[in-house]
Specification:
- The structure is a single chain.
- The chain is mainly beta.
- It is 0% helix and 38% strand.
- The strands form 3 sheets. Strands 1-2 form a two-stranded antiparallel ribbon. A two-stranded antiparallel ribbon has the order 3-4. A two-stranded antiparallel sheet has the order 5-6.
- The radius of gyration is 18 Å and the shape is extended.
Length: 110
């Protein structure tokens, strides 16, 4: 499997639960302001699926957050060809379409 070309890429909505602490060269849009407008759409050249993650935690009240993005499918590996190492980028298919639920209650198992 080779690199997925940009013209074959899908487009997804992208927004975050919170602004990141570290600096990245990208505009961070918060999901709390999400309005399905074009300003939230990004190209996903290394994805075949979009992702929407909903998380909630009950502390004293229930706190919820949503994150939208391209599905994480890009894999980078070094490949030896003709005695020279080259970066090989592939798109993995680790996901099935649909929803899944993880209810780990946020704690460690003992």
């Amino acid at each position: 499997m080779g690199v997925l070309r940009t013209e074959a890429a899908i487009r997804c909505y992208k927004c975050s639960v919170a602004r990141y602490v570290h600096y990245i060269n990208e505009t961070i849009r918060l999901c709390e302001d999400f309005d399905h407008s074009d300003k939230y759409i990004v190209d996903c050249p290394y994805s075949t699926l979009c992702m929407k993650r909903i998380a909630s935690a009950k502390i004293s009240d229930t706190i919820s957050g949503i994150e939208r993005d391209c599905a994480s499918q890009k894999s980078e590996n070094q490949k030896l060809e003709n005695r020279t190492w080259h970066l090989e980028v592939t798109i993995e298919e680790p996901y099935e379409e649909g929803c899944s639920e993880l209810n780990d209650k946020g704690g460690e198992e003992h």
